[in-house]
Amino acid sequence: MLLAPRIPIPRWSQLPISTLSRRLHAKLKFSSSSQTKLPVVCENALQPLEDDCNEFLPWLERKAGVEISSSLSIGKSAYGRSLIASRSIQTGECILKVPFNVQISPENLPPEVRNLLGNEVGNLAKLAVLILHEQKMGQDSEWSPYICCLPQPGELHSTIFWSENELNMIRQSSVYQETISQKCQIKKKFLESKLALERFPDIFASINFERFMHAYAIVGSRAWGSIKGLSLIPFADFLNHDGLSESVVLSDEHKQLSEVIADRDYAPGEEVLIRYGKFPNSTLLLDFGFTLPHNIHDQVQIQISLPPDDPLREMKLDLMQKHCMPAGKPVNGFNSLEDSFTIKEVKSALGKGKGLPQSLRAFSRVLCCSSTQELHALAKEAAQCDGRLARRPFETRGREILAHQLLLSQITHFIEEHESSIELLGPADSSSRGGNFVRRSQMARDLLTGELRVLKSAYRWLKNYIGILITADCPNNDVSNYGIIPM
Ligand SMILES: C[S@@+](CC[C@H](N)C(=O)[O-])C[C@H]1O[C@@H](n2cnc3c(N)ncnc32)[C@H](O)[C@@H]1O
């Protein structure tokens, strides 16, 4: 997550650390409506904390030398540890302030370890090493009360911890591939850190890849990043996520603290939630190990490729590269025309709201060209406009229809794949296997149904667009000239 700077007009934007790192080289059930935010009656009633957490806040306040919160206490909900209003909270009230001096950053690593970890290791891995170090110190760690509260192995549900069988449930989603890449990335970080760790066998001898990955996932799901780097913010990191909340963790450089302002009133006993970011279920699942049943930020990543037997393949590839189309980038060093496009929910099939990404529509226009003349015409048009290829509808309506029919058939294919994967999962909670499998099946279902919703919205938009073109061109719906099947 990214800390929003504490500036007069707050910027409500955050990113999870692991998403950031990937880009750079990373129940108490509440209704999801921000208007009501009433607790939904469920089996997961809020429980007072039965473990040492009663002592946690006083310990942190002693360490910080200031009061951190007068309105929150630590509780347990189905989301794990959580922060609960210990009295009425008013909208706009500052509910916690955690000074920088009790935040944990790579600077807190013992200098002899820190100096051995090169820049290439990165802050996320350094913080993971720090957690492993403090765990080894046990009661002697100055952070021991905090380290004890972190999730244990087996308690995290990011897809990096899923078995091959469990991962198969989400094979149709891009999260499947992203999980594999993320595990490779963590392995790389482990090997880079290992060289340094081996110099301290008494501390790190028992550290294997699994333990490193667990520590890495802890950091990825609960550290905040800012221009200064990356830090764990004890107490603030007990706050759970609501995608509709307007509360985020703010950073005040001037006062040297992080704080949270309530975005609504809370009654005593209610769980206080913040927004980690405007994250789709794919991000929540990979980086945080949970999903939301209906996530308004859902999106789907689709991959479209140019058929290898397209006679104009080389020319199309060349043109796309010249015009810096994302899909023109060589993949794995090969001249492959394939890339992924992100589709968000298309709000209305009738033209209101956002349509499909322009880059995707441009890609399919290039894909459907069947002569060198057509491609030359696209290049000429791009040169005369803003340099971007195929951004305008084809002048010949039939070509525009074909380009969008091509997209429609791809989207239909993705819809069918998602539908059969969801069917294979069976109805919710019907699995005879208990524990993690049931939980992860539900996450897979949330992920795939969210992506399906987005795909269907794209499908409706495309059908509507094609329908308009066909009707405009062929009032009698005689589309036989185009070789198009009437819809
Ligand atoms: C920053 S920590 C929040 C405190 C955490 N519950 C704990 O036990 O320490 C983030 C983790 O909390 C859980 N979490 C947060 N919001 C959630 C939600 N809306 N639904 C399910 N789990 C959630 C996930 O396990 C996530 O990785």
TrEMBL record:
GO terms for molecular function: protein-lysine N-methyltransferase activity. SUPFAM superfamilies: RuBisCo LSMT C-terminal, substrate-binding domain, SET domain. InterPro entries: Rubisco_LSMT_subst-bd (IPR015353), Rubisco_LSMT_subst-bd_sf (IPR036464), SET_dom (IPR001214), SET_dom_sf (IPR046341), SET_RBCMT (IPR044431), SETD3_SETD6_MTase (IPR050600). Pfam families: Rubis-subs-bind, SET. Residues 64-277 form the SET domain. PROSITE patterns: SET. This is Ribulose-1 5 bisphosphate carboxylase/oxygenase. It comes from Tripterygium wilfordii.
